């Protein structure tokens, strides 16, 4: 278990991506960045990460489809944390239906995200 | 004496053409100015709008996208995917398979894990019956998708079925082969929610031409400029129509048409007026005129809104045959609509609708090709009898030509100042060149198609009704 | 020279109208060429601008991230942070770069909360960016003012409300709207006090914006909304009804029930929807007794309410109206009866059920 744990992050906001990458790499994880759901799926299939962080609203392939693909097509139990905007309770419920592990509502505190990531990857 | 009478008749004819041209040019100039004012004010108001809130609010109104499909098997799966990827949250997508003879339905069932469901349909508008029934996905990720398989009845009939099925407050009609931008719904819903002193009954936005653009997985990746003059000319035409014409009409609240390619409607009113008319090839224009007329008759303040944002991209005809048949249909649609609602024309009870919009459409859209052809015939006769003063004629031809080039260039500049979508190098020069060429290479075909449309309308109108041809860009 | 004279002479013998046409055409053509030159210039300018913009943006993004992670507990600003501040300060005098910088800050600011968000707000002040919107609050162009207020809202700049408030009667509604958003962003429910005085309608769009700000704030301590439910401004009433739903204000149920007699139909419908959401079962008696007199939309809203709040005492009401002339109402009643498995359901309605499901149409 010497190798750093891999996390795929799907997020279309480039600064937020950069911020989280920085923050999580400081904690010793390896971050793979996708700017839409499609890229995320490619990274997930290629690297088989230990954790997936995905925004729900993304160009082309949505976060929901990412979850559905991971759980139903890849039959993988990799934990998934989804980011949603406030007020999207319905979508969050759908995300849980599809098998999301946890969710964070935007705007969120990066600090709290790190705590949740750590807990899931223990 | 004989020669004298001739002279008088000739002068009258000449003055008729002169006055027609001058008023056409004046109206274009006025529309251009009005649209500049309106565009500026729209840009100012919307430069700091945050569209995010409408996406996450539990109070954002529900929208149904209705997309009729007829023999679209080739691209249907991708097209549906693009419709499902809108950023708006509270919406569903109703695909109405209008009796396709291909395997569209099978492909959809397979791609989206559809199963047939039993739902009661509130048949507020009479339509052709269902064929395979109503389908929904078993995968929650495609929860927004509803597929309806019905017997063939034409585009208007399919849209009406969608109106019956939809449970939402607003409906968007769209051509299934249109590439809908992800932020289109949130932008187009804004006028409905924002205007408080009038009831917004419908709204439309800018349609762009997707020919030669790189599209992958239902997403527009790269905007390119096509090579054929025909396609380039249409791009120019769309820029002029959407950025200069419709913007101005929206300011005057006199818009008579929302492109059938994509428009948003208040469902309740659309149903109240009886939905789309299945007896015309111009159902997109006809329903707007009928909704306006209805609002005037019940004396309620209303508006047909329009926004200059590009909302969806569509394939335009890339060969003269399809192009001509498309324009032919548009011409017939216009004639049919104006004829059906001739009561409002020049009728002061309908205020600006009757005194401004209708006359404008009648004179400059409906009659213009006929006047133009009459002018050409007249000119031909003059040549034949050697009556032509070439130095006089040349001045008029040059006037018309330089005006049309100028108008195109103004449209290009207004596109650059607002959305600047054709960023790539060299497209600028191509746009300028086509501004000079378009009156020569495209216009004659438009004229030909319009005349053909007139002839077919008056002499062959029954024939086409039997076989329902779907109105679409038909380039697949 | 001769040729020139010849052309001039030739031109002079034209009738007036032809002269005018020739001159106009030449003017139009000249315009065409001037505009073409302008177009080329414009395209070039836009291209340079956009490449500069993306370069700046990349640079600002990485400086911002470095800045955020090079702070320490002991000092206000670490040495490295001071260095970045100095660098960024250098560009703030250029309007264009300043705009890109602010956009970059906001791009991150809007997505996060907590220490890092505070840190961005602090950076905004430290960079001296605050002076620009403040100086614009008295600008003569309304869109400049609106933009300035918006910026202050987004960075949650406190302590300047008295200056912002000077625009309370600004003639442009866009400016007033930005001001309302500012007040609510900073003072949440207390900021909503402007509703007491509001004369103009609050559009649905504005209402949604305000509600979202409230929802995202940490302060969820809602004030008394009763006065707004009684407001003479109909849009304020409709906004208050939304608040009642969002914050489950069961205690204002009497005020909402009173709204069932409001003169505006939309408000009556919204009131039923709110009662539905709040599960105010006692309202059903009133609604049932008035059912026939109410408008179609109200009837639909009420039947939908029964769908959510069904009690066995509603059975006879449903049976009474199962043949309602409106198809939508009929369908909802069917749905309720079906879902609840009324034992008598098929007894009453096999025919009716077939009549309205799509089974008939496929046959």
From TrEMBL, chain A:
**Domain Response regulatory: residue ranges:** 6-121
Mark the residues carrying the PTM 4-aspartylphosphate.
55
Q: Which CDD domains match?
A: REC_OmpR
Instruction: Identify the Pfam families for this entry.
Output: Response_reg
Q: Does the keyword Phosphoprotein apply?
A: yes
The record's SMART domains line, in alphabetical order, gives: REC
Q: Name one GO biological process term.
A: phosphorelay signal transduction system
What InterPro entries has UniProt attached to this entry?
Bact_response_regulator, CheY-like_superfamily, Sig_transdc_resp-reg_receiver
Keyword field contains Ion transport: no
PROSITE patterns attached to this UniProt entry: RESPONSE_REGULATORY (PS50110)
The source's domain of life comes to Bacteria
Sorted keywords for this record are:
Phosphoprotein
Designated name of the protein:
Response regulator
UniProtKB/TrEMBL annotation, chain B:
Query: What keywords tag this UniProt record?
Result: Glycosyltransferase, Membrane, Transferase, Transmembrane, Transmembrane helix
Query: Could you name the domain of life of the organism this protein comes from?
Result: Bacteria
Tell me where the transmembrane regions lie.
12-37, 370-388, 394-415, 427-451
| Molecular function terms from GO | glycosyltransferase activity
Q: Which residues form the Glycosyltransferase 2-like domain?
A: 64-111, 143-201, 227-402
CDD domains given for it? CESA_like
What's the family? Belongs to the glycosyltransferase 2 family.
Record-given protein name: Glycosyltransferase family 2 protein
Q: Which organism is it from?
A: Flavobacterium luteum
TrEMBL record, chain C:
Q: Gene3D superfamilies under this entry? A: Leucine-rich Repeat Variant
The superkingdom of the source organism is Bacteria
Q: Which InterPro entries match?
A: ARM-like (IPR011989), ARM-type_fold (IPR016024)
Chain segments annotated as transmembrane = 20-39
Q: Which UniProt keywords apply?
A: Membrane, Transmembrane, Transmembrane helix
* Name of this protein: HEAT repeat domain-containing protein
Which organism does this sequence originate in? Answer: Flavobacterium luteum
């Amino acid at each position: 278990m010497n190798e750093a744990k891999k996390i795929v992050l799907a997020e279309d906001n480039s600064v937020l991506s950069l911020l989280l990458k920085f923050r999580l790499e400081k904690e010793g994880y390896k971050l793979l960045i996708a700017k839409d759901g499609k890229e995320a799926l490619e990274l997930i299939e290629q690297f088989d990460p230990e954790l997936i962080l995905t925004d729900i609203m993304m160009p082309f392939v949505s976060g929901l489809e990412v979850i559905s693909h991971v759980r139903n097509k890849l039959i993988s139990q990799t934990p998934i944390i989804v980011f949603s905007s406030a007020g999207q309770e319905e979508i969050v419920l759908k995300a849980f239906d599809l098998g999301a592990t946890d969710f964070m509502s935007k705007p969120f505190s990066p600090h709290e995200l790190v705590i949740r990531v750590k807990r899931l990857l223990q | 004496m004989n020669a004298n009478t001739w002279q008088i008749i000739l002068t009258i004819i000449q003055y008729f053409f002169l006055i027609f041209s001058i008023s056409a040019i004046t109206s274009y100039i006025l529309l251009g100015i009005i649209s500049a004012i309106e565009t500026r004010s729209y840009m100012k108001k919307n430069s700091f709008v945050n569209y995010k809130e409408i996406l996450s609010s539990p109070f954002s109104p529900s929208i149904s996208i209705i997309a009729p499909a007829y023999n679209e098997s080739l691209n249907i799966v991708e097209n549906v995917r693009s419709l499902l990827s809108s950023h708006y949250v509270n919406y569903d997508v109703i695909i109405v398979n209008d009796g396709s003879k291909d395997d569209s339905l099978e492909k959809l069932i397979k791609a989206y894990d559809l199963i047939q469901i039993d739902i009661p349909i509130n048949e507020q508008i009479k339509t052709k019956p269902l064929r395979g029934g109503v389908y929904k996905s078993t995968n929650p990720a495609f929860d927004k998708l509803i597929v309806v398989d019905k017997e063939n009845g034409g585009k208007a009939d399919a849209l009406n079925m969608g109106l019956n099925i939809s449970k939402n407050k607003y409906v968007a009609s769209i051509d299934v082969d249109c590439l809908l931008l992800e932020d289109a719904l949130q932008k187009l819903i804004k006028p409905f929610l924002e205007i408080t002193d009038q009831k917004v009954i419908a709204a439309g936005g800018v349609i762009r031409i997707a020919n030669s653009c790189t599209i992958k997985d239902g997403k527009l990746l790269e905007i390119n400029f096509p090579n054929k003059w025909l396609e380039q000319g249409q791009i120019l035409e769309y820029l002029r129509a959407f950025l200069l014409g419709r913007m101005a009409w929206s300011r005057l609240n006199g818009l008579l048409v929302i492109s059938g390619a994509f428009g948003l409607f208040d469902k309740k009113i659309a149903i109240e007026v009886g939905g789309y008319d299945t007896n015309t090839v111009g159902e997109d224009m006809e329903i707007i005129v009928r909704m306006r007329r209805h609002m005037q008759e019940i004396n309620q303040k209303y508006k047909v809104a329009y926004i200059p944002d590009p909302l969806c991209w569509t394939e335009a005809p890339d060969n003269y045959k399809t192009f001509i048949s498309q324009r032919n249909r548009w011409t017939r649609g216009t004639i049919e609509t104006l004829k059906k609602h001739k009561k409002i024309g020049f009728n002061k009870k309908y205020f600006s609708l009757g005194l401004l919009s209708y006359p404008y459409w009648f004179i400059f859209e409906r009659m213009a090709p006929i006047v133009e052809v009459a002018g050409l015939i007249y000119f031909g006769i003059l040549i034949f009898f050697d009556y032509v003063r070439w130095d006089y004629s040349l001045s008029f031809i040059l006037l018309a030509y330089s005006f049309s080039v100028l108008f195109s260039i103004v449209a290009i500049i207004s596109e650059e100042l607002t959305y600047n979508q054709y960023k790539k190098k060299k497209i600028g020069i191509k746009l300028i060149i086509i501004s000079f060429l378009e009156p020569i290479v495209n216009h004659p075909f438009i004229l030909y198609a319009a005349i053909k449309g007139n002839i077919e309308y008056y002499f062959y109108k029954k024939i086409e009704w039997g076989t329902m041809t779907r109105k679409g860009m038909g380039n697949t | 020279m001769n040729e020139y004279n010849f052309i001039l002479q030739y031109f002079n013998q034209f009738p007036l109208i032809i002269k005018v046409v020739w001159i106009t055409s030449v003017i139009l053509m000249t315009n065409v060429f001037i505009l073409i030159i302008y177009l080329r210039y414009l395209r070039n300018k836009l291209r340079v601008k956009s490449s500069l913009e993306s370069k700046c943006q990349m640079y600002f993004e990485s400086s911002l991230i470095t800045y955020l992670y090079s702070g320490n507990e002991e000092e206000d600003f670490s040495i490295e942070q001071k260095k970045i501040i100095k660098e960024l300060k250098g560009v703030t005098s250029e309007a264009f770069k300043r705009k890109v910088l602010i956009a970059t800050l906001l791009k991150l600011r809007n997505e996060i909360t907590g220490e890092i968000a505070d840190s961005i707000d602090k950076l905004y002040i430290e960079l001296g960016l605050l002076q620009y919107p403040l100086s614009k609050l008295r600008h003569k162009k309304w869109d400049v003012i609106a933009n300035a207020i918006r910026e202050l809202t987004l960075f949650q700049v406190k302590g300047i409300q008295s200056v912002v408030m000077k625009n309370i009667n600004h003639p442009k509604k866009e400016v007033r709207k930005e001001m309302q958003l500012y007040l609510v962003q900073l003072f949440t429910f207390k900021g909503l006090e402007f509703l007491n005085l509001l004369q103009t309608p609050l559009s649905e769009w504005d209402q949604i914006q305000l509600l979202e700000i409230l929802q995202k704030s940490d302060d969820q301590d809602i004030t008394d909304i009763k006065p707004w439910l009684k407001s003479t401004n109909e849009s304020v009433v409709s906004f208050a009804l939304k608040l009642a739903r969002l914050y489950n204000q069961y205690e204002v149920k009497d005020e909402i029930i009173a709204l069932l007699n409001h003169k505006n139909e939309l408000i009556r419908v919204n009131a039923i929807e709110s009662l539905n959401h709040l599960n105010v079962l006692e309202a059903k008696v009133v609604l049932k007794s008035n059912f026939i007199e109410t408008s179609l939309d109200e009837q639909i809203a009420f039947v939908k309410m029964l769908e959510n709040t069904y009690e066995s005492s509603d059975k006879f009401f449903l049976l009474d109206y199962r043949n309602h002339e409106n198809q939508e109402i009929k369908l909802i009643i069917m749905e309720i009866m079906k879902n609840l498995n009324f034992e008598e359901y098929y007894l009453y309605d096999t025919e009716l059920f077939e009549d309205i499901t799509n089974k008939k149409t496929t046959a």
